[in-house]
């Protein structure tokens, strides 16, 4: 039996969990974490969050929360940036069309595209019993690896949606059947080494204890002792509008991620911390759950119309709409499905 003392001690610990929408900020070829300064980066990304987003964004360039004037996220003190690869439909005739992003129906209506972002403590339902430390200013990390050709880690998932509330089963690769939409899920690691804002592979300063389906799989190791929020992205892709177009007859499926991956093992996501002052720490130290954290309890929040009004103009001038003859940035194809630019990219990201 738990002693009264330990119950009291647990009650003093934080229980907050954030789940909120961020509308689309920009869709363009920039990647300030993996390819800082490259205009354009190797492949197309969809980005949400603060409008300080640009090609470089090094820690010494300053605090995004000071530079940004708006954010596409519900929590108006969150000027972080969140991004993933973009999904395309590949026609049998070789043309590509970008798959639009649709809103999550767990969120208020009216949010334009974007993602659902989570900062949880340990898992979806129970919020753990330890201090959760906010990321420091300048912090960034990635999850997943473009070059992976088999399952890379837990927490990188695809869900074949029957409707927008479908959450299972979670797949490690693209579903091969026709779905009413596909959700991609990216869980980031939640154990930090306590020292480095980044690392050469953007991952070794973190340790992964996440499991599938928002379930945590253990304590942080001594090498990475600081428990930070468990960050997760969900993106809902409106694939249904392509279901009546030509479908491969060899058992494969027609969707591809923007770096040419039609299996999905290279699915990846980037995170750049940008909460104002101590807003994230205050939230993590509170006991609010999801939208109960809004309206100053303890976080300032805004409505979808204000979120949607925040955008950044593309720095990269290229067409990403309609039928395209190649994936943006992937035009030099040697017949192996790997473009010259993506080969350079692979070399530059290999640890
Ligand atoms: C990005 O923003 C920083 C800080 O405002 C600025 O110093 C830098 O020149 C910008 N870089 C690009 C490529 O726009
Ligand atoms: C492929 O099919 C689409 C839809 O019919 C069409 O618009 C596009 O021009 C075609 N591409 C090629 C290369 O024929
Ligand atoms: C949505 O799909 C799930 C199965 O994925 C099903 O259990 C649920 O009843 C469906 N909801 C609606 C509103 O149709």
TrEMBL record:
Coiled coil: none annotated. Residues 1-16 form the signal peptide. Residues 31-275 form the DUF1996 domain. Keywords: Signal. InterPro entries: DUF1996 (IPR018535). Residues 332-351 are annotated as: Disordered. Transmembrane segments: none annotated. It comes from the Eukaryota. This is DUF1996 domain-containing protein. It holds the Pfam family DUF1996.
């Amino acid at each position: 039996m738990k002693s009264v003392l330990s119950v009291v001690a647990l009650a003093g610990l934080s229980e907050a969990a954030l789940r909120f929408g961020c509308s689309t900020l920009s869709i363009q070829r920039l990647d300030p974490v993996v390819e800082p300064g490259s205009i354009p980066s190797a492949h197309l990304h969809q980005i949400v969050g603060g409008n300080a987003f640009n090609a470089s964004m090094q820690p010494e360039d300053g605090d995004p929360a000071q530079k940004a004037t708006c954010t596409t996220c519900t929590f108006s003190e969150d000027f972080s940036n969140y991004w993933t690869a973009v999904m395309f439909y590949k026609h049998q005739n070789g043309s590509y069309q970008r798959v639009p992003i649709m809103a999550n129906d767990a969120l208020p209506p009216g949010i334009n595209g974007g993602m659902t972002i989570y900062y949880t403590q340990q898992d979806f339902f129970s919020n753990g019993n330890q201090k959760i430390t906010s990321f420091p200013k300048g912090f960034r990390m990635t999850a997943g690896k473009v070059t992976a050709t088999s399952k890379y880690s837990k927490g990188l998932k695809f869900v074949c949606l029957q409707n927008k509330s479908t959450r299972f089963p979670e797949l490690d690769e693209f579903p091969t059947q026709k779905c009413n939409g596909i959700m991609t899920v990216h869980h980031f690691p939640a154990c930090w080494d306590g020292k480095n804002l980044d690392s050469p592979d953007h991952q070794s300063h973190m340790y992964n204890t996440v499991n599938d389906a928002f379930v945590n799989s253990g304590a942080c190791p001594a090498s990475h002792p600081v428990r930070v929020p468990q960050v997760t992205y969900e993106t809902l892709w409106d694939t249904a509008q392509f279901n009546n177009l030509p479908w491969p007859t060899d058992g494969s499926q027609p969707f591809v991620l923007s770096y040419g991956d039609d299996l999905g093992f290279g699915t990846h996501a980037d995170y750049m911390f940008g909460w104002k002052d101590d807003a994230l720490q205050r939230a993590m130290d509170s006991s609010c759950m999801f939208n109960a954290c809004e309206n100053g309890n303890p976080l300032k929040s805004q409505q979808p119309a204000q979120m949607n009004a925040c955008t950044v103009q593309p720095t990269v001038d290229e067409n990403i709409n309609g039928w395209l003859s190649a994936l943006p940035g992937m035009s030099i194809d040697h017949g192996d499905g790997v473009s010259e630019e993506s080969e350079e990219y692979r070399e530059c990201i290999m640890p």
